[in-house]
Amino acid sequence: MTVVQETQTYVCRNGHVRTDQFDPNGAPPDGRCLICGEPLLGHCIHCNARIPGKPRAPGVIVANWSLPNRCPQCGAAYPWAEHVSSSGNASNAVARIEQICQRFHLVARRLARRHANRRTIAVDDEYDVQDLLAAVLAADFDDVRDEEFSPSVAAQNSRIDFVLVGPGIAVETKMTRENLTDKKLADELLVDIRRYSEHPEARHLVCFVYDPQLRVKNPAGLVRDLEKTATRFETLRVVIAPRGI
User: InterPro entries, alphabetically (predicted)?
Assistant: First the structure.
């Protein structure tokens, strides 16, 4: 019989999670939110009930956990509920980012054809993809933060591409290249998905693979396999564009 252990979470008033599997019998984490500097909360400000965290069981991975917006004991809204609701409709924001990614190749091609052959940006590698995508996202979203530090994976600290702070959406970019097989691309994205899942601001994730030379052999299968990965994200989307199949 699997024994599920109750845990609590520590989170700031803006909804930034410091830890989602805290032992209620242990000492609370010190300091303030690492993102915005607000004090950390571990209990409801109305009834003092602990804020429930992700359930924990030996040998079991709990997927699709999300921070609650209301106290399960007294029903009062947590301080971050208003912040989340005022940040806009996340599903609409995700859909807009998907649309931008799907039309990214058209933007890159248009930039390559400037008047009188003036200098332009050539999208030759992932850094070019990041720079151009950041500029396009800035037209729709107020707070696009690039290359935030993320927790270490396999004992190595790494960076992530973008976090859209309002709707809590992270964006990871890839560009296909020679000798990057579908399997290797999938493996890289799985590592990225795991890395993003530890970021306290990311409640949704969009992975954009720019494939201008149509190198991905089975884009539909790759998208299907990655999007069914068990994660804590409320939304996980993978966009491969343009598509040859």
Answer: DUF2321 (IPR016891)
